Prior knowledge:
alpha+beta
Amino acid sequence: MIWESLGIVKENQKLHKGNVEIEGDLATLADKSIFPGDVLWVRDSEIFENRDIADEISEQKGDILQVEEGFRGTLLTSSVSAQLCQGITFSE
Length: 92
């Protein structure tokens, strides 16, 4: 998610809570004392040595984004006049 949102590749992500870096991939949020409402921040280590990011870039370009259609196909986007709906009553 951080890669998609901020463009920081996985290997370069340094996640923090306060001034403490959160390390380890196997711990749960509770193990790291991260609870709802906590503020986390990420820093890019900017280390590009000994790795080829061409695969990562090509994978990103290969992802097809699905167009969101919102309310298409529902009455919320229809061109039905409000006058046509005046006679409709709803029961509880």
